[in-house]
Design a protein that fits this description.
Layout (H helix, E strand, L loop, with lengths): L4 E5 L7 H9 L4 E4 L8 E5 L2 E5 L12 E4 L4 E2 L1 H13 L8 E4 L3 E2 L2 H11 L12 H9 L12 H21 L8 H15 L3 E2 L1 H10 L4 E4 L26 H5 L8 E7 L2 E3 L12 H9 L12 E3 L1 E2 H10 L4 E5 L9 E9 L2 E8 L16 H14 L3 E4 L8
Parallel strand pairs: 1-10, 1-11, 2-5, 2-10, 5-7, 6-8, 7-9, 11-15, 14-16, 15-18
Antiparallel strand pairs: 3-4, 12-13, 16-17
Helix pairs in contact: 2-6, 3-4, 3-5
Bound molecules: inosinic acid (IMP).
Length: 402
């Protein structure tokens, strides 16, 4: 294995990346987020305690791991502070362990408000309502408040005033809603920054030092391949590039691109929010998968849409991300089914399925491939052959050991 690894979702997010990053982190010196924001929700179980991380890299539970948030991440300082507080209450100290790029674009409460107002309109796409889209719009439109702007009060005041005016115009005139007070936005931001300023610094140089000294870095992707703003099911996508190939820009460390890529795929498929989902199940089987798989959004609590695994989509995701290995998660959720289907072709818009006989015995906690039921082995071997990529990890339960 090369010394660094990029871990990405190969479907519409929620593939179980949090657990796998957490599992892998112990072997790495650093873990770095490189895109997305607090729309992500990575669930980790540690000694029966459940943690949901939104911004902080999932490597945070290991003492030896340094955590980084790269410049490609849209940063809500308020959400960050809440997360830090929760972790510190559990005895996890972040100072000296977490470093955030000064080049991050900030997500402010006015982004969340405009996201919510738009979602309440008829053109809703089912966002997490956290303000991710508007914050990325500002970044591309060159009007973002960058974290480094907070170091220069005069510049900040000028930029922030014009940003508040920009949004207040829309809030009042398009949405007929209550505008923001510039003074309050400014005061709240300065207050939050006072608490968070110690975490900001240079991420590029620090990652380079770790790399040059022989350390290895894990790059933690958020959301999934089919939510990528360029590659995904546009316009039903998130606003960042979720593909592994965006790691160089998003981490700020060019050598990050010379990494292996681990693609995480669930043994079935889920999606939250609106948009196409050809293998979606609208019957009792879909509801059963949702119930057994606890398929409710980690960030919003919304029920996830469920369906069978789409091997054409997975094969394309392997190609698009240059995936070197696949990790198949939640195999145990399929344990009880009489039959399991996978999409192997399309006729027009209709998926063509191959049906597997279910193994109907528990795989929970099995840690050796040879100990899996033969029918489960067949299912895994077929996926490997079809997509042309090695499945090097199979996850059979929520805890680290499984
Ligand atoms: P946004 O990222 O909040 O703008 O939402 C855009 C789309 O991406 C919606 O369909 C969301 O449900 C989806 N999305 C955003 N973050 C996640 C995630 O972490 N997991 C799964 N879906 C997500």
């Amino acid at each position: 294995m090369k010394k660094s690894l990029i871990l990405v979702g190969t479907q519409w997010g929620d593939e179980g990346k949090g657990k796998i990053v957490d599992f892998y982190s112990k072997k790495f010196d650093a873990v770095c987020r490189f895109q997305g924001g607090h729309n992500a929700g990575h669930t980790i179980y540690k000694e029966d305690e459940k943690f949901v991380l939104h911004l902080i890299p999932s490597g945070v539970f290991y003492d030896h791991v340094s955590c980084f948030i790269g410049q490609g991440v849209i940063l809500s300082i308020d959400s960050l502070l809440e997360e830090i507080k929760q972790l510190e209450e559990k005895g996890i100290e972040l100072e000296g362990k977490l470093r955030i790029s000064r080049y991050c674009s900030l997500l402010l409460p006015l982004h969340a408000k405009i996201d919510q107002l738009r979602e309440d309109n008829k053109n809703s796409i089912g966002t997490t309502r956290r303000g991710i889209g508007p914050a990325y719009e500002d970044k591309t439109a060159r009007r973002s408040i960058k974290a480094f702007d907070l170091e220069d009060k005069d510049l900040l005041e000028k930029k922030l005033r014009s940003l508040v005016e920009y949004y207040n115009f829309q809030i009042k005139n398009i949405h007929d809603s209550e505008p923001f007070s510039y003074d309050d936005v400014y005061k709240d931001l300065i207050e939050s920054y006072k608490q968070a300023s110690k975490y900001f610094g240079d991420v590029t140089d620090t990652l380079e030092n770790i790399y040059d000294e022989g350390g290895n870095i894990l790059y933690e992707g958020a959301q999934g391949t089919l939510l990528d703003v360029d590659y995904g099911t546009y316009p039903y996508v998130t606003s960042s590039n979720t593909l592994a190939t965006s790691v160089g820009i998003g981490s700020g460390f060019p050598k990050s691109i010379y990494s292996d890529v681990l693609g995480i795929a669930k043994a079935y498929t889920t999606r939250v929010g609106a948009g196409p989902f050809p293998t979606e199940l609208f019957c009792e089987t879909g509801e059963r998968i949702a119930k057994l798989g606890h398929e409710f959004g980690a960030t919003t609590g919304r029920p996830r849409r469920c369906g069978w695994l789409d091997l054409l989509a997975l094969k394309k995701a392997v190609f698009t991300n240059s995936v070197t290995d696949i990790c198949l998660t939640k195999l145990d959720i399929m344990d009880e089914f009489n039959s399991i289907e996978v999409c192997i072709d399309y006729q027009g818009n209709q998926p063509v399925y191959k049906t597997f006989e279910g193994w109907q015995s528990s795989t929970e906690g099995i840690t050796e491939f040879k100990n899996l039921p033969l029918k489960a082995q067949e299912y895994i071997n077929f996926i490997e052959d079809f997509v042309g990529c090695n499945i090097s990890i199979v996850s059979t339960g929520p805890s680290r050991e499984e």
